[in-house]
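Reviewers of the previous submission asked for a worked example of the structure-prediction workflow described in the proposal, so we include one complete record here. The input consisted solely of the amino acid sequence. No template or homolog information was supplied to the procedure at any stage.
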Amino acid sequence: MGRFDDRVVVVTGGASGIGAACVRRFVAEGASVVVADVQDGPGTALAAELGDRTDYVRTDVTAEEDIARLVDGVVERHGRLDVLFANAGVFGAVGPIAESRTVDVDLTIAVNLRGVLLSLKHGARVMLPREQGVLIATASPGGIIGGVGPHTYSATKAGIIGLVRSVAAELRPHGIRVNTLVPGAVVSAMTADAVAGDAADLDRATEAMQANALFGRPGVPDDMAGAVAFLASDDARYMTGSELVVDAGYTHAGGSAAFSHGRFVGSAAMLEGGRRSA
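From that input alone, the workflow returned the following structure tokens.
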């Protein structure tokens, strides 16, 4: 018996990276999973690899009709939707704020924020009659602290956190939980493109990310899959409107605890004018 036996899960952006790891985790724990993505090759291959409990449905999250058709198709085939993980996202517009191209900004917002809102909308639409279900969205430390992500990306990820909190308050009386995953730097095609200039060069990306890895290694998609499985499971039944930060402490404990070692070892207290307590 798996935690997700007889449950039906949709993962947007499920063809690669964090999404693909989550698809594998849900299938391993018994779920039927729909991979929703625009990457036809990887999405089809993943569904074929995982067998008859996995389907691939081409879904552009900037197009509401695609999301509506995705959700309606899942309900038509399986009779229900238990978990929707709104994970699809891009780094999008990059560069100085004064040089931002509006077309790139608009596309980033359309994928990262509008796409999540529409995913929550249509997921909630089919969960409300049953008064149960789980909605999860992917944010980022860039939505919490400044200077760690592109400008528009950071704005959309902050927006996701606010959106999830608001939707969670609405849907709580209906038995639907809504939470946010906040993943740290994870080795994936998207981060490889950003740090190594080649989406396929995961080894070089790992090496580049190793230098600043807080736990001695960078995060990998499976680290996030465990967190998402928890949020989707009954183990998290008393959680809603929350952010689960999975980043080796980067967001909330990124310092080096400088006052606990070196010349401060053994100091009882630093007081006025340089005086130390006995």
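The mean pLDDT is 94. We consider this example representative of the routine output the project will generate in years two and three.
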